[in-house]
């Protein structure tokens, strides 16, 4: 099993701003390298069978212009698909979610030694009160854990039941460190230190609830 804390440290995180059809958005950016060929990484993030092994079961019309649904999670439209380098999808929750409020983009670049540079950008139009409470960690912590699962999968391993892993001591500590790391990214983007500290605490409590 790969070490979750080492994998967490392998990622670079940024907070920025961007534009979506629904308005100005916050963006969380994760960049890291995987020891796998670009075609293998592309297949892992686009194949329904493989997505179910490291992320979530997915259904729908998995081609450009088609709609997808992740089990118990987001759904949307496949907006761009340029194998094996670029995938962009809308990322929406619930039957009343408005188009254009949230998008995820994955960009892959082949590395010099048969490896792959991986970039994920999640842009979302977010209520300012919600962002002020939780900051970028509300989205970023979940992606950190997801990209760890992808690392395990690409190395030939499996995490098993995701709910069991998420409640494990390793995942709880990773969530704490991820929330802190997103706090650092928030500070680097000009966040108010007091607000950032409060957001890190709130995000940590959400992802790592007391086990009473």
TrEMBL record:
Highest rank taxon of the organism: Bacteria
Domain Activator of Hsp90 ATPase homologue 1/2-like C-terminal: 35-127
Gene3D superfamilies: 3.30.530.20
Transmembrane intervals: none
SUPFAM superfamilies tied to this protein: Bet v1-like
InterPro entries: ASHA1/2-like_C, START-like_dom_sf
UniProt record similarity statement: Belongs to the AHA1 family.
Protein name (database record): SRPBCC family protein
Organism: Micromonospora cathayae
Taxonomic lineage from the root: Bacteria, Bacillati, Actinomycetota, Actinomycetes, Micromonosporales
